[in-house]
Specification:
The complex is a heterodimer of chains A (346) and B (506). Chain A contains 13 helices and two strands. Chain A has 346 residues and is mostly helical. In chain A, a hairpin with a 2-residue loop joins strand 1 and strand 2. Classes of the chains: A mainly alpha (346), B alpha/beta (506). Chain A: GO terms for molecular function: transmembrane transporter activity.
Chain lengths: 346, 506
């Protein structure tokens, strides 16, 4: 062999330890937890009622629906996509579910809930087909359906709205009910986070999403069914937004055509702050959940701290930019150290 | 072996009269190939001869326009790479295709991860399986590390582990050795031989005939997308094969040169970058070809990048024709007449999605513009002239550069820089992954440039190229310049000795 190549001895290097990938991600989640703790500590020292049961419950309730959507969004963003239609899908599902229950009060509400989820899944399927098979960029496709789905709700509602009084009592009870002091809605959110977390971490389908987002070409060569996976992901995101709509209806009781407007950006923010790379391939749903929680706590803490409404949005914005800057920094650092270290272990 | 009733050995896989076109480029026309169980088959041909396309048909990536793929005598249609894999065809591609965000173990087993209860991925089993594969290959790679940042050689090892993990009946290797060291190549061949002897059919693509001879029993030559010949390797000589590949008489691989170096053009003085290289000093004269040799990772490319100003340097000076260059300013380096043809043409040399025209004229968009506006006509005229001088093969100048074969991509990179009429040309691995015909052309071109008074600095890991082309050989070891050998003293042993710091190189 004429190639000038390193002698074999160079292959012995120090062991690099267990997964560095996980270490980075854990570092990120730890950082979010620390930020949360610090924020809560500062706010509580300003006003001790911030840690009252009622206040905590408010935060959990406000986080619950964002959690669901953040799970769907995480899956989508992992594949290098984005789903901007979730707010509209939530509105459609909330209005559909509430209308169904007000017109057929004898219908068991879980059945109506399933209809709402199915409605969301159908919307997601539209997104998925356009993106996976129509090869339309996700940003454009879901921006389009954001308007289309919202338009459908407005057309359907025609200016009317469903009032809490029109809805079955047990449905509303579910929306405000608690188990051991924890709202049902939050429990559902946590359950979904855990299920999606398991799926993404430990199932082939979930790992395929990371693979697609990491390198679509490599995924194609590895025989990953890219189109099918993308379709599934958007259906899942739609279904979770549909579930979010059902919970929205149960929680507020009063639903008009604007339910969930603008929610998509909150969800994207939560996911990005939670460390899911916007260019796909890395991040966890746990990080996204922490991101959702952090944003809600910020929203609730700033008024307590006497900070102007205007600054709340500015602070969220700054946080998003800081999160992405941090990602870049970590990526550059890790990249450099990975390059420097030989991949061989000894 | 499988024998059909009339006693003839049946191929495991056969491609029959396969044709495939991409736009106006006919990549394959009536290509044929038969692979037999227990046999390693070499596929050779110049770059652009259609080898890679043929493999992609075999791997289910491309659907043939005409002809059939047969498996055990049955015509099959692969819907995608997954189908081919399930049929027992594993492919090691020329360019590693890894997932940078996933761990090495997951890269190997994506879509096929070992599963435990409830269909959960069994990470411990996956890790153990990956370690077993690396043990079989005789290399140590950490299965937990992400693929991001791995050297090309390590990436290639992961690709190989991926391919052999499937226990394939057919193993296709598309130039798997380009980035590997001698030891690693030996181990790969040992594994390939044991797979072959265990009944697998192997298709091996390489430009290195010694490797072909070390592994293969049969050789197929392709040219211009068509089948030229298939023979037992023992029946043909390297000369015959090369003549069939090129289809014309091949001039000497290294042109005759009468060197008459002129003034010093490039001076590098005490160049250092902490932790990468230190105190590198040398000069290159007009009309001189100086080779920068050394092991992979000795810091050669980094020095080149610092000279061109892509990377920063911590100390030292670079002068062109006596004038000092500011650090970290490629534009200043270009203005001073330096051109850099980088090591990795796909990543650094080309914008793969842009047209050939755009790529070939990119450094000169200003001089080609009229009143600040680029007119397509002047770009096309210039691109046509320079790609023509380099005999580049393409469908249309408007095609994305990524659609060209490797050798032709390299020609476009060269065209782009030669059109700036540089005083100093730095080429980093100019002929890596390029077929012999193009290699000879690139060598001739470099000699011609030197004769025209260009100072050429050539980084190369191929000793014959270093020895055949250079007037002087500089050798780097672990970031230091350790030898400056004039042509007369530059022997294989002397260079290896300097590069490794020991008598017997690995």
């Amino acid at each position: 062999m004429s190639l000038l190549s390193p002698p074999a001895e160079e292959q012995s290097q120090t062991r690099t330890g267990s997964s560095r990938l996980d270490a980075v991600l854990r570092f990120r989640e730890l950082g979010l937890v620390l930020a949360l703790v610090a924020l809560v500590a500062v706010t509580t020292s300003a006003n001790s009622r911030f840690l009252s049961q009622q206040s905590i419950r408010d935060v959990l309730l406000a986080t619950a629906i964002t959690l669901l959507l953040a799970c769907g969004m995480t899956m989508v963003v992992l594949t290098k996509g984005i789903d901007l239609s979730v707010g509209s899908v939530l509105g459609l599902s909330a209005f559909g579910t509430a209308t169904l229950l007000s017109e057929y009060p004898s219908l068991p509400w879980p059945v109506a809930g399933l209809v709402g989820v199915a409605l969301g899944a159908a919307c997601g399927a539209v997104n998925g087909v356009v993106i996976a098979y129509g090869r339309v960029p996700a940003l454009v496709a879901t921006l389009g359906t954001l308007y289309v789905f919202r338009g459908i709700v407005y057309f359907w509602a025609g200016g009317s709205r469903v009032n809490a009084g029109d809805l079955p009592r047990d449905f509303l009870d579910f929306g405000t009910g608690r188990l051991l002091g924890v709202p049902y809605l939050f429990l559902i959110g946590v359950l979904v986070v855990l299920v999606v977390g398991q799926y993404l971490g430990r199932y082939r389908g979930g790992r395929d999403l990371y693979a697609i987002g990491s390198s679509e070409d490599a995924a194609r060569l590895a025989g990953v069914a890219i189109n099918r996976r993308l379709l599934q992901v958007y259906v899942a995101s739609g279904a979770l937004a549909g579930l979010g709509g059902v919970l929205h209806a149960a929680r507020y009781g009063t639903v008009d055509a604007s339910a969930g407007s603008g929610l998509e950006l909150n969800v994207v923010a939560a996911v990005v702050v939670g460390g899911v790379a916007i260019f796909g391939g890395s991040g966890t749903v746990y990080g996204a959940a922490l991101g959702a929680l952090l944003l809600t706590v910020i929203n609730n803490a700033l008024p307590v701290l006497g900070i102007d409404q205007f600054w709340q949005r500015a602070i969220v914005g700054a946080l998003i930019i800081a999160a992405i800057a941090l990602d870049r920094l970590v990526a550059v650092r890790v990249g450099r150290s990975l390059r420097r270290k030989d991949s061989h272990v000894g | 072996m499988d024998r059909s009733p009339n006693g003839v050995v049946e191929p495991v896989v056969a491609l029959r009269d396969v044709s495939k076109s991409f736009g106006a480029v006919r990549a394959l026309r009536g290509a044929r190939l038969e692979l037999f169980t227990g046999e390693a088959h070499a596929l050779v041909g110049e770059n652009g001869a259609g080898k890679s396309t043929l493999i992609k048909v075999l791997a289910g990536v491309h659907r043939p326009d005409g002809g059939t793929v047969e498996l055990d005598g049955q015509a099959v249609e692969f819907g995608g790479p997954g189908d081919a894999r399930d049929a027992g065809i594993a492919v090691i591609y020329q360019e590693p295709t890894l997932f940078p965000d996933l761990s090495v173990a997951e890269n190997i087993f994506v879509g096929r991860q070992p599963r435990g209860r409830f269909g959960r991925i069994d990470r411990a089993a996956m890790r153990a399986a990956a370690e077993a594969l690396f043990a079989r290959l005789g290399v140590r790679v950490d299965p937990d590390r992400p693929a991001r940042g791995m050297s090309i050689a390590d990436q290639q090892l992961v690709e190989i582990a991926k391919a052999i993990s499937t226990d394939a009946r057919v193993l296709v290797m598309d130039e798997p050795t380009a980035a590997l060291s001698g030891v690693e190549v030996e181990r790969l061949f040992a594994v390939a031989r044991s797979l072959r002897d265990g009944g697998a059919a192997i298709l091996f693509i390489s430009h290195r005939f010694n490797e072909v001879e070390a592994l293969c029993q049969r050789v197929t030559v392709m040219r211009d997308g068509a089948h030229i010949s298939t023979d037992p390797l023992s029946d043909v000589t390297v000369d015959q094969i090369v003549r069939r590949m090129v289809g014309r008489d091949l001039g000497a691989l290294f042109p005759e040169r009468t060197a008459e170096p002129g003034e010093v053009v490039l001076e590098v003085d005490g160049l250092s970058n902490e932790g990468v290289y230190k105190d590198v000093s040398f000069d290159v004269r007009a009309g001189e070809i100086v080779a920068l040799a050394g092991l992979v990772g000795a810091g050669r490319s980094e020095v080149a990048r610092a000279i061109f100003g892509v990377d920063a340097r911590t100390s030292g000076a670079v002068r062109v024709a006596g004038r000092s260059l500011p650090a970290g300013r490629p534009r200043a380096a270009m203005a001073a007449g330096i051109a850099l043809v980088p090591e990795d043409r796909r990543e650094q040399g080309l914008l793969l999605d842009l047209s050939i025209t755009r790529n070939a004229t990119l450094p000169r968009t200003r001089s080609l513009a009229t009143l600040g506006f680029l007119t397509g006509a002047s770009e096309r005229r210039s691109a046509r002239e320079w790609t023509g001088r380099l005999q580049t093969k393409y469908g249309s100048l408007g095609d994305p550069a990524g659609t060209l074969s490797g050798g032709n991509q390299q020609k476009v990179v060269l065209a782009k820089w030669l059109s700036t009429q540089p005083k100093v040309l730095i080429v980093d691995e100019p002929t890596r992954g390029i077929d012999i015909g193009t290699k000879a052309e690139v060598h001739r071109l470099m000699a011609q440039l030197a004769a025209e008074g260009v100072a050429v600095l050539m980084i190369s890991s191929e000793l014959p190229e270093v020895l055949g082309m250079a007037d002087r050989v500089l050798v780097m070891r672990e970031g230091e310049l350790v030898a400056d050998l004039p042509r007369a003293e530059a022997t294989e042993e002397a260079v290896m000795f300097a590069a490794t710091g020991q008598q017997e190189a690995a």
